[in-house]
Write a structure and sequence with these properties.
Transcription Regulator spoIIAA, Beta-Lactamase, STAS_dom, PAC, FMN, flavoprotein, alpha/beta, 8 helices
Length: 246
């Protein structure tokens, strides 16, 4: 039955020295390139290599030591030296008739999935960067329009992207425009205050413009106090206030 499944199975015996493999199915030999007789009697660590994450290895070792279930994604090596990302689940299985545990490992090659996910993450990051442009108004005043929803991840991208640009410029005042800001949460608000503090350290004053009634009501509902931020109803009002200060 195990031979007929598309999953990759490995069974090891922790009652023997070094917890050797006692069985692999055909899926394992097809995935790794090793023959059955080449792996039986060996510890699974032969699949590790120089780029295998040591923390993932330690997670597996600790779970085996405690006889606990564990799932990790780990970089493993095939017989020909090529790598693959292995979604590994290990389950300690007690065989009552023998009065002892065995470890059943179920493996799945997720290399293609990870590549697609990394590509998708890259696309999302590009979109996030494009949706947070720094728009210069004068030599010392710029506007940062925030468009759409913003969460902790996107706020971190904003901070990471904006600060280096400001360091290379002569900006004294940054207007953060929230007029197209669709929603707010606590993490995003913390990020806005963090940006304000970081800009202050660099000698840049941050103004908030375009706080919509919807966002203001949502902020109050989250017990978020926006009053400590210098805010204006629109970018135009913020620019007029700047002109009066000059």
């Amino acid at each position: 039955m195990i031979e007929q499944t598309e999953l990759v199975f490995v069974i090891s015996d922790p009652n023997q020295e070094d917890n050797p493999i006692i069985y692999v199915n055909k899926g394992f030999t097809q995935l790794t390139g090793y023959e059955y007789d080449e792996v039986v009697g060996r510890n699974c660590r032969f699949l590790q290599g120089p780029d295998t994450d040591k923390q993932a290895v330690e997670t597996v070792r600790e779970a085996i030591r405690k006889k606990e279930e564990v799932s990790v994604q780990i970089l493993n090596y095939k017989k020909d030296g090529s790598t693959f990302w292995n979604l590994l689940h290990i389950d300690p299985t007690y065989v009552e008739s023998e009065g002892q545990y065995y470890f059943v490992g179920i493996q799945k090659d997720v290399t293609e999935y990870r590549a697609q996910q990394e590509k998708l993450d890259s696309y999302y990051q590009e979109i996030e960067l494009l949706s947070t442009p720094l728009v210069p108004i004068t030599d010392d005043v710029s506007i940062l329009p925030i468009i759409g929803n913003i969460d902790e991840r996107r706020m971190n991208v904003v901070i990471e992207r904006i600060l280096p640009q400001i360091e290379k410029s002569e900006i004294d005042i940054l207007i953060v425009d929230l007029s197209s800001f669709a929603d707010i949460d606590e993490a995003a608000t913390v990020g806005i205050f963090q940006l304000k503090d970081l800009l202050k350290l660099k000698g840049v004053t941050m103004l908030i413009a375009g706080v919509t009634p919807k966002v203001a009501m949502k902020a109050r509902g989250l017990d978020i106090d926006l009053s400590s931020l210098r805010s204006y109803g629109s970018v135009k009002q913020a620019l007029e206030a700047i002109d009066k200060l000059k």
